[in-house]
Each structure stands twice: as structure tokens, then as C-alpha cells.
Amino acid sequence: xxxxxxxxxxxxxxxxxxxxxxxxxxxxxxxxxxxxxxxxxxxxxxxxxxxxxxxxxxxxxxxxxxxxxxxxxxxxxxxxxxxxxxxxxxxxxxxxxxxxxxxxxxxxxxxxxxxxxxxxxxxxxxxxxxxxxxxxxxxxxxxxxxxxxxxxxxxxxxxxxxxxxxxxxxxxxxxxxxxxxxxxxxxxxxxxxxxxxxxxxxxxxxxxxxxxxxxxxxxxxxxxxxxxxxxxxxxxxxxxxxxxxxxxxxxxxxxxxxxxxxxxxxxxxxxxxxxxxxxxxxxxxxxxxxxxxxxxxxxxxxxxxxxxxxxxxxxxxxxxxxxxxxxxxxxxxxxxxxxxxxxxxxxxxxxxxxx
Length: 355
Hints:
By secondary structure, the protein is α/β, with parallel strands linked by helices. The chain has helices at about 20-25, 40-55, 75-90, 110-115, 135-145, 165-170, 175-180, 200-210, 255-265, 275-285, 290-295, 300-305, 310-320, 330-340, and strands spanning about 5-10, 10, 95-100, 120-125, 150, 190-195, 225-235, 235-240.
């Protein structure tokens, strides 16, 4: 006869969850009960952190300050993605690398050249609508001088998308000539789309293929598997292979990690948002924009005189972000500042320029 664990004296008893079982054992750690002192303890820690920031002295090193943080993010699926990209390269004729026009160097995976080898490549400079237009032109010219085809894009509006097909044909001109000499006319061109997380790969594919099959969100790590998409433009058939975003094992340059975190390529939950906002404010103080000063009703002389933590507190007050006692809620202000930077509400800013 089958033994029924959920019976007592021949009567059925309700199925108990883990919390009830742990509670019976008298385990306060797993009972699910909240410690009433915990919220106040957390508030005290946050208040102490704010006091420590207010007492900081200006850093002597302008590129790396006390507000810097070591950013590290290389989940297990990144390793699997890297292996998958290398395995699927034999299936494609060319590689289209999408980068963020605001950080053209930091958003390029340094492992990629060794991964793709001699495959023809096109660089797609996405998010040009958020970057400084003059700097974007400089970068496009820089890549062309390096012998790499570069296109300026805004995948959300479709600006520059029309140049993609001709660019692919240009980099594959030799292969196409060989195919046509063998009688293989109008052969489909296969292109792998690669790039770091949250750089706009899926948005690009949806725009150029005029579909919404590629899943998109304004956060990294949405695409998890390879997907094929077919498009036809100007009599040319192109098969696109979408791949998940892949970062490299570690950021040897601390500034690279920070710039990727500024643009949202690194998940916010693995960074200290307030520290990140302070670093962004240090950059904006050294590279002022009219849009930033106007956005928060600040004079440039005020911005120059304040340290980053003072500036963040001033911004919090300007936006009415206060906590008990009238203290500025710098945590909320930090989240808001990063969101507005990523939406170009502080100006069209490029964080890197070609040497």
C-alpha cells in the first residue's frame, strides 16, 4: 500500500511548504519572518556611506578617482556564447560588428579579431542619435583609414540602415566574383551579427528585416540563443545570424568597465549605482555640456566649484528627491542621472575620441 506522507490519523492534511516546515523546526533564519531592525540598519548604513562621500577629498588622478569601482561581469553563458560564435563562423560569409557610437573603443570586444580571423567584417556604429555628431564622423573616418568598412546607424529610426546591403556587397566583392564565375548567381549572403550586450543587435535586425521577431529590451542579456533572419534588399538576399551579446573575461582597463556601465552594457545590479553616477559627474565636470547645466538649472561656475558628491546632492535637491530630515536622496538621483545620460537628455555625448 502506498504510504501517504500528508495524512494524519487517516485524514488528509494540507501540503506544507518549506517555510512552515522550517518554522516547526524553530529555525528563525529560514522561517521567512522579517527582522524589524533590518530596514533601520540599512538606512543607517546608507546614511554613513553618504557622510563618507561628503568627507572625501578631491582625487589627484583625474582619470581614476576614489569614486571608481572595479566592474566585473562574465557570467557562464558568455563562455558558451563565445564557443558558439566560433563554431558558427564556418556557416557565414562575413561578420557585422555592432558597436556603440558613444564608446567606439570600449564597446568593441578585443577577443573578436582573433575569434573571426580573416572573415570580412563591417562595423555598424549604432546609437549615433545619442553620440556627438562631430565625434561620430571622426570615428567613421578613423575606421575607414584602418581599412574597415564603417556605417553610421540609428537603428531606432532606421537612419543609415539602407547602407548595410551595399556595405556587405563591398566587403564580399571578391567572393561574389568567384561565385558568379562558377555560375552561382544571386547566391544568398550569410552575415553573423555580433556585439556586446545592449548595443542594439536585435533592434538592428528587426529594423532591417521589417519584423519584430528578435526580442529587444533596453537592458543587456536579452538575446540568449542564435537566430536566423532573412531579408531581401535591392535584389540581394541576405541571411542574418543574430547572436547573444558577449563581453570579455575581465576589464583590464578600469575606464573601459566604467564607460560600458555608463551606457548600460553592464547590468546595473552588478554595479554600485551611486558610485557610478559620481564617476559620470566627474566626467561631465571635466567635459561640460550646455544641456547638462540647463537640465538641472545649474550655472557652469557652480558645477566647476562642486565636487561630484556635492553636485549629486544638488541635483537631488533640484529634483525634489529628499528623504526624512530634508537630506538629499542621492541614491534616487543617481538612478535618474544615469537614465537621463543614456537617453541623451544631458546632451549628445561621446566618451571616447580617436587618437
